[in-house]
Amino acid sequence: MSLSPTGALRHSGSLFAMALDVIRTLPRRPFQAREFIQQAWFIASVTILPTALVSIPFGAVIALQIGSLTRQLGAQSFSGAASVLAVLREASPIVTALLIAGAGGTAICADLGARKIREEIDAMQVLGIDPIHRLVVPRVLASMLVAVLLNGLVSVVGVAGGYFFNVILQNGTPGAYLASFTTLAQLSDLWAAEVKALVFGAIAAIVASYKGLTAKGGPKGVGDAVNQSVVITFMLLFVTNFVMTAVYFQVVPQRG
Amino acid sequence: MGVEICVEGLTKSFGPQVIWQDVSLTLPAGEVSVMLGPSGTGKSVFLKTLVGLLKPDRGSVTIAGRDITKLRERDLYEVRKLFGVLFQDGALFGSMNLYDNIAFPLREHTRRSESEIRRIVLEKMDMVGLIGAEGKLPGEISGGMRKRAGLARALVLDPEIILFDEPDSGLDPVRVAYLNQLIVDLNAQIDATFLIVTHDIASARQVPDNIGLLFRRELVMFGPREQLLTSDEPVVRQFLNGRMQGPIGMAEEKDAAQVEQELAQLGDRATAQTPGSGPLTPRLLPGPGITRPPRWEAIARREAALHRSEVADV
């Protein structure tokens, strides 16, 4: 990748052009149901286990931090409320983003990149088949679906992990933990997190597909593409996360 | 019936590097043409420009009355259904077995029943001699088999134009001979327009109706096979005879003085041996089992007459 400013602009331009192409191609029939199911299954299979394993310590860290903080402030009765809030609002979308980009996105990028340098994509275009319609759209939709489901998984595992650490290890009161569950968090927090996950899934898949389909220069090119796709996706996801959080606080009235 | 491809003033560059400029030629409908050129002269780029995978900087490619360099993406996909392309390594889909690979265009573009698809796929696989390998994955077979499977896939939609990207690279001479025969037989059977990009001189001498030569960022010559084979143009002579003396160097083109000197030396010997002006390589004709269309009947008659006169000369 060239380091000139016009090069960076051109790449961002074509990335957005492809995102628009994906949106425009979405309603085109026939829908590639088979590819969609295969990809959803594939992305789920590479992300579920690492996600669960990452979200347990993540929930635990939050529980530990909040446990000691609430004790210092003398607000132990709110430890449950605070840890649910932290897991639901920030931890789960971030963990989902990391895993979707790191496990799902890299797999998509490597797969499409390998096809690109083997000229399979060219062959497909010559056979009159649009790779955006045939390959990218099902992957984007599959990644969105899996991201939403993963977000639910992270929330459950994270909250359960928080409960375990707070109650069993820090000798918190189970009743107080459960009772304060909904004092701060509300249902709209879950919806917001799910919407974030949906957007993250789309961004990760589009960036990975773009990088994969523009890979060049043999096997090394595929490696570079995967590397760049992870870096770009992470940057985009964290910026998007910030923007969406800021908008959320403006739009949805908070409790308390 | 094949379709004519009309290329005018085509220029392509990657960044500051000009690949070729001002390429103009017409591939006549239903005929076999060969595009020759030393390695790295952009033969594959030319092929990809013809199918609209790469956009040229200038110029037009007119196929069936439409300039494909100016078509919108969606129309381009329609025009591409006229094409069958054999890529260098076959470009098979690695995740599918050979049967599914060859059936892929039929399943995507037609509403045929599976039994009908099976009939067509097996027919094409028989044509390229791959019966029995339906269940193999592209990773499990040799390069030659991948190429033949790629050819079978290019044929299933009965294309009007077939492009071959170095069909003979990485194949042994016997397989190249079979492949050349297959190309000629195919041309007699389906009447499509063929373009073969290669640097194999033996194939170029035997197979085509027309030959073109790309060198030094331009099309040196394009014309009927006889004209190129008997041409006095130094680049054409050097390439078709596969010798070192001439304008084509190992890395780049040579400087003019050196070329002149080499050609002069060669000229002394050449007058004695007259290479290039010797008997024309006989053309490869369709096999005995193939019913020849009028075009091939005429070629066969001409060939027969040519060689009778040569025998008489001797």
Describe this structure in words.
The complex is a heterodimer of chains A (256) and B (314). Chain A has helices at 5-25, 33-73, 79-117, 120-126, 131-169, 174-179, 181-184, 187-213, 218-251. Helices cover 85% and strands 0% of the residues of chain A. Chain A is built from 9 helices and no strands. In chain A, helix 3 runs antiparallel to helix 5 (131-169). Chain B is of the alpha/beta class and 314 residues long. Chain B has helices at residues 43-50, 73-80, 98-109, 114-127, 143-155, 173-190, 201-206, 225-229, 234-241, 256-273, 294-313, and strands spanning 5-14, 17-27, 32-36, 58-63, 66-67, 83-86, 161-165, 193-197, 210-215, 218-224. In chain B, the strands form 2 sheets. Chain B has a 6-stranded mixed sheet. A 4-stranded antiparallel sheet of chain B has the order 2-1-4-5, covered by helices on one side. In chain B, helix 3 (98-109) packs parallel to helix 5 and helix 4 crosses helix 5. Chain A binds chain B through residues 114-115, 118-120, 122-130, 134, and chain B through 48, 51, 53, 73, 77-78, 80-81, 83, 85, 87-89, 91-94, 104-105, 108-109, 150, 153, 157.
**Total of DSSP H or I helical runs spanning 4+ residues of chain A:** 9
Q: How does the helix and strand content of chain B classify structurally?
A: alpha/beta
Number of strands of chain B: 10
Shape of chain B: globular
Largest sheet of chain B: 6 strands, mixed
- Could you tell me the strand content of chain B as a percent range? 15-25%
Looking across the biggest beta sheet of chain B, what order are the strands in? 6-7-8-3-9-10
Proportion of residues in helical segments of chain A: over 70%
Unreliable spans of chain A: none
Structural class of chain A: mainly alpha
Radius of gyration of chain B: 21 Å
User: Strand count, sense and closure of the main sheet of chain A?
Assistant: none
Concise summary:
Helix content of chain A is 85%, strand content 0%. Chain A is elongated.
